[in-house]
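Record pair follows.
FIRST:
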Amino acid sequence: GERSSHRVIALTLVMMVVEIGAGFAFGSMALLADGWHMGTHAIALGITALAYYFARRHADNPRFTFGTGKVAELGGFASAVVLAVVAIVMAAESLQRLIAPQPIRFNEAIAVAVVGLVVNVISAFMLQDRPAHDHEHGDGQGRHRDHNLKAAYFHVLADALTSLLAIVALSAGKAFGWTWLDPSMGIVGAVIITRWAYGLLIDTGRILLDRDVDAAFVSKIVQRIEADADNRVSDIHVWRVAAGSLSIILSIVTHHPQ
């Protein structure tokens, strides 16, 4: 995940400079939004890389009682906040352009948006390995999610989406003279990105606040221990400390301690 995020940061930064420059030069809001969007994603991907570095460096530090697994979740949470801010800025800029339309050089803007989309698709494939297997198994234990990598993956997908919307808006604007479509797509992109950010905030927040493990899974642990009629679980706490790692504290009342 870490090496992938480094490569994607480099690709994203280059494409960001190209798209912002082209957006100003050719007057496209959709392209400009995509460029700024990529810039903030480079920051978010930087957060991802820093989280991996920090977690690895302090993995054996005894001051972290349960290890550094939650650093990745913290990185994912921070990325989600950045994602939400991007969406608000995009929506505001797009509304401004709807009220005061500007001339657009369609051919050049479309060409840059297509390149942006290709770069984003490549980046998504580079980050895809783990989030693609982001499913849950029946035992409630299946949430082995690296939310930090998932955040990076969502950022790249959000970029691909805004590039695609930019291409659609610019093509229709060129063909039918619908210049209002360019800023409208900026607003549509902002709404979708807000939804992704919200989902990621909920997922990472649940783990950061230690309320990730569901009740059915905890009751299975209790049933397993109480299968011996002499054992009774008087208190139990189960929480996730990293993707794929749980911690448990429990008190057992028994007449024959093992």
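SECOND:
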Amino acid sequence: MKKIAIVTPTYNRCDLLPRLVASLDRQTDQEFDWIIIDDGSTDGTKSYIEKMMKKGNVYNIVFYTVPNGGKSRALNYVFKRKRDYDFYAIVDSDDYLVDNAIELIKKRVDEFIGNDDIGGIVFRYVDSAGKLIESSQKKRQVREVIMTRFEHDAIFSKDDGCMGYFQRVIKEYSFPEFENEKYVGPTVLQMLMAEKFKIAFTNTVVGVAEYQEGGLTKSGRKLRLKNSNGMICYCLLLQKGSKKMAARIKYGIMAWAYRIYNGFSEKELKEKKILTGEFIPLLFPFGMMLAWIWKMKYRI
């Protein structure tokens, strides 16, 4: 039997956790572990989880508390310490699962675990009305595909869902971490692993997502400007991995803008192991202009 972990980083979401817990309690297959990481919450999350654990559950609960450092750092914490699972499905604290989600996840894990080229699986989410959560920016993904994150996003819309990683990925890759920063784009790990692994983008619905005020999805540019090292890394990976010139130019300009906005020198970026050689000198003036626009608009 494949060992499955549901991994939930959480920060001040004590009011929403009972909904997720109830969905875990309803699972038709209770053979899984729930790993929850309290990322420095101040709203009683720790007390709630500890009280719930005392009541006893059919599924096993692994609970960590860490100083507030952001979602990607919390996931790295788990990945470095719990490497005995076959598959890690990331379920945010403001999402919850359909009743047979574990069954569905295990079925797809069984299907792909023997393929060493596949490092992860993307499952779909619906909203509270039961409608698929989709972006209208690009072509809709109708059929299931196996691609790298770069290949997928060049063709299809980047729809919300549950991302899961096989053990072979988390043993080799992790999210980059930067001092005094708490945010790195969730697809950065998927872009890093693209040099070796593809992802199975399925149409299997396993959960319900509802975006919350103050959540990462709604935080926008201000959040990204406060975490510029992570955004430079994100932009340079997209620039390097994109095949279309328009995309390479777009993300090259944005990488310059984040760098100029914070005055990072090449020496500083090299010390942080950021790809300084990927900056395109000709795009510098456009990056400077974009950085000026951001300074005028956001004044951070």
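COMMENT: The chain is about 40% helix and 20% strand.
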